[in-house]
Amino acid sequence: VIVADSGAVVEEVIEEIVINNGDNKVAAFVDFDRINVEWTYFQRETKRIEDTHMGDIQRLEQEKKKLEQEYTTYVTSVQQGGLQDPTKEEYIQKEQMRISQREQQLMSSAQNEALKANTDGMKKMKVVLKGYAKKNGISYIIATGLNVASPVLYNESELDITDSILKVLNKRHK
């Protein structure tokens, strides 16, 4: 196992595993990139969050287009000698602000739901990982993946338990 300079605590644990493996300490790893993509719980939650907000997003897009058309028509009218209407301009500005605020609310809501789903998923995964480690005599399970701040830069594929963990997760937490 080769370890990056960051993550001193994990580095020390891994060095201990490598140096003191006479204690029969077993290490394994889980690829969190695969967990995020292949765990049906995360797939379902992602789809649920998208579906929940998709209708609102589409409605806002329609309102935006309608407002843009209204503004274009108004500007064209003024350019062709029509009267400027301060109440119309104020109305358009207020509507643009309202739509922008609603978009921000939707984004914030979706982010909060994704964070909650991720936190709930991690709790479920930790229970599975702990049970799997105890059942299989594993002392350390190390997270790897491009989206994980992992100090592990290399690992042997024989130590990969991701398939086994995904089977359990997908069976228990669909």
Protein architecture, described:
Helices cover 70% and strands 9% of the residues. The radius of gyration is 26 Å and the shape is rod-shaped. The protein is built from five helices and four strands; from the N terminus they run βαβαααββα. Mean pLDDT is 82; it is low at 1-21. A two-stranded antiparallel ribbon has the order 1-4. A two-stranded parallel ribbon has the order 2-3. With 174 residues, it is mostly helical. 10% of the residues are buried. It has helices at 8-19, 32-38, 40-79, 86-136, 162-172, and strands at residues 2-3, 27-31, 140-144, 152-154.
Question: Which key terms come to mind for this protein?
Answer:
mainly alpha; 174 residues; two-stranded antiparallel ribbon; two-stranded parallel ribbon; 9% strand; 5 helices; single chain
